[in-house]
Structure of GTP-binding protein:
Amino acid sequence: MSLSPPIYDSPAERQLAELNALSRSPVRSGVMSPARLKLQLLYEQSNQEPIKKGTLRPADPAGGAFEKGKPRLLLMGQRRSGKSSISSVVFHKLAPNETLFLESTARIQKDTMSSFMDFQIWDFPGQIDVYDNPSFDMDAIFGGLGALIWVIDAQDDYLEAVARLNVTILALQRSYPNINIEVFIHKVDGLSDDYKLDIQRDITIRIQDELSDHGFENAPVTFHLTSIYNHSIFEAFSKVIQKLIPRLGTLESMLTNLCRTCRFEKAYLFDVLSKIYIATDSATADMASYEICSDYIDVIIDITEIYGTWQRSDDGRKRLEGEPWNAKLEDQVGCSTAESCLVLHDSHKPIMLREVDRYLALVAIMTDDSYDRMPLVNMNVEAVVEGLTEFFDITKPKINVAG
Ligand SMILES: Nc1nc2c(ncn2[C@@H]2O[C@H](COP(=O)(O)OP(=O)(O)OP(=O)(O)O)[C@@H](O)[C@H]2O)c(=O)[nH]1
């Protein structure tokens, strides 16, 4: 009897099937599954394409962010616009109101973040204008840059900030056209929704008009409304970081597939330390679901800090492994490092958290009948976690090669 090849209705379905194969097939010494091999080959190809000076690889969604090792993010903008506050709140867990006491940055601050991917954040003092100062080595600053984050204080007069940003964007378009420019219209807390949108519209028009006057259409400029006093800054950073992840579509397909099979409402893959989500499923993301999942991570971290080192007594372990379960404890829990489930009583939506590795956690909002299908849910989550682990096994060494 001969086996006919599987027929897929669409390329997306084929990709999902390959992903499932990727997450199911264990890698034996030197033997790779076809899906894993394909992912590996895609990487080899995109890493071998010749790179012209000043241009970035088109096939790489992160541009040339990985050429020199750790992807780099640059924070620029006027003085007191909030750059150091953003980096302290997102990456150093500083309480937002403590940023009131931050001193003005005098020199370029370089921070390295070790996480699911190692990246650097450079905080530029507001008074430095790189295009005013010929002594700056532009290639050292912008060559291989992941993203330029330009912070504009929405509570201040922003015309000068926009003028400086325009000069920078035009210069970058000429020399480094693929650098993502992320404009954070910042400090929008306390502004009415209408006013926020008015400001965003005004700034967008001013920048786009300037760009089209100089013949640049479709420049990679994105706008975000942010504040350190709510989740918007994490949401914006999530979007920035996602653009740096090679093959993000693969991660999104895995999560979309998981949501479909387990009937989850939403699934996020979080970087636990920063609470940035690095991928989510294809359903529309809303701030409320992100907030609740991100707060849940805080709860788990706090509980782990209190009870994390707790060891079970031999007696307790025997009781849990005996009747009626008759199985070793390790086989009963989905993950030896962390697993948890919380039910929100008002909306009857359980939230599930599953650690992927020491940096990443999968957090999903389930539906209220999910408890009836927990074994199936656990099995699917396990398969996706294996797939994610393999994904990062392949991509991480490529990202950090030159470190
Ligand atoms: N209301 C509000 N204030 C903010 C926000 N982010 C930062 N700030 C305040 O803005 C002030 C300046 O913040 P910094 O982070 O020092 O600004 P900076 O851009 O690093 O300034 P330089 O180092 O001089 O370039 C501080 O008092 C912060 O508390 C925000 O989202 N909302």
